[in-house]
Amino acid sequence: MTPIMVELLLRSLWETVLMTVASGVISLVAGLPLGLALVVTARGGIAENLWINRGLGAVINGFRSVPFIILLVALIPLTRLIVGTALGTWAAIVPLAIAATPYYARIAEVSLREVDRGLIDAVRAMGGNRWTIIREVLVPEALPGIVAGFTVTLVTLIGASAMAGAIGAGGLGDLAIRYGYQRFETNVMIAVVAVLIVLVCGIQWFGDRLVARLDRR
User: What is the pLDDT of residue 216?
Assistant: First the structure.
């Protein structure tokens, strides 16, 4: 590869990392409370409210059912409103975050549901309120699963960010399409695939190590 292509590859890698990290953080900040809301308002939950639970679940399922490439196009007006443009790395963060949030919310919900019911009852018996149960029992006990789910979400976002390259979002996907596919530069395509593999493996390795340290079982 020429020095120019190496520079393009490094810039594209940075754009992919930026899209993944920014949208991942947003999905964590928004998705975890949604997962908590689904658990606490479910039947038998500490704040049971089936109307809220079913309504919230329907909205989340609705967003999850839309293929990302369609959501990417459908959210162009919203993206323009928030970022000022529908093209580029920052523009891609909007649909990536919106797509990842309900996905992560369901993953967090599964982890939170696995918390031992006996611990919740014990805190209740000692006079703990809802916020105490969430803060001292639900989140700490489910933390390994929450982190593992966030790792999976980040890996999924890397693939989605590559797909966003098809509409000019930048990143490794855009580089692979413009040079590897349209210009038939096989070496560029191979380099992009290799970098993506290393990136995914690195994130998964770090996530697995962190989960192992947090798991107290």
Answer: 67
